[in-house]
Design a protein that fits this description.
Layout lengths: L2 E3 L2 E5 L9 H14 L7 E5 L8 H16 L3 E5 L3 H10 L4 E2 L2 E4 L2 H16 L4 H6 L6
Parallel strand pairs: 2-3, 3-4, 4-6
Antiparallel strand pairs: 1-2, 5-6
Helix pairs in contact: 1-2
Length: 138
C-alpha cells in the first residue's frame, strides 16, 4: 500500500497486468480493502504509472472487481494510465466515468475528487444519493 487517507486507499502497481498476475492484483486489492473496511474505506485508487501492458483477462478482472467493490460501497479509480493501456481500456470503457469505474489523468485529480465528494456528502442529508449516484458531479 502506498498511501492511506481517511476513507481512501492508494496502491501502485509496478508491473504489467496480464493473465499471469491478474488474480494476484484482484486478491491484493480485496485483501487491502477487507483489512481496512472497519475504518470506512470508500475509495480505492489504483495508480497505474508502472503498468505498460494490460490484456483481456486483466480488463475482465478490473470490470468484475469494480462491480464487487461498488456493491460494497467502495469506488475503484485508476490514475496515471499510460497511452497503450489507456487505449485498451478505452475500447472497453469509452467514457471517463463508467458507473463503477472512474479514470483520472493523475493521482492529485483522483484524490481531489474523493475529498470533494466527502465534503459534499458531509453537507448533504441524502448521503446515499451523493456518494453512490454515478451521475452526481462534484
Amino acid at each position: 500500500i502506498n498511501a492511506e487517507y481517511m476513507g481512501l486507499l492508494i496502491w501502485r502497481v509496478d508491473a504489467r497486468i496480464v493473465f499471469a498476475n491478474a488474480e494476484f492484483v484482484r486478491d491484493t486489492i480485496d485483501q487491502l480493502v477487507t483489512q481496512r473496511k472497519q475504518v470506512g474505506v470508500r475509495f480505492f485508487i489504483l495508480d497505474c504509472r508502472g503498468v505498460n501492458t494490460i490484456d483481456s483477462t486483466a480488463l475482465h478482472m478490473l470490470d468484475k472487481l469494480a462491480g464487487s467493490l461498488y456493491e460494497n460501497r467502495v469506488q475503484l479509480m485508476l490514475c496515471n494510465v499510460k497511452g497503450p493501456v489507456r487505449d485498451m481500456l478505452g475500447r472497453v470503457y469509452p467514457k471517463q466515468v463508467v458507473g463503477k469505474l472512474r479514470f483520472y489523468s493523475d493521482i492529485n485529480s483522483a484524490i481531489s475528487w474523493c475529498h470533494n465528494r466527502l465534503e459534499v456528502e458531509m453537507q448533504t442529508e441524502d448521503k446515499e444519493e451523493v456518494c453512490w449516484n454515478p451521475e452526481y458531479r462534484c
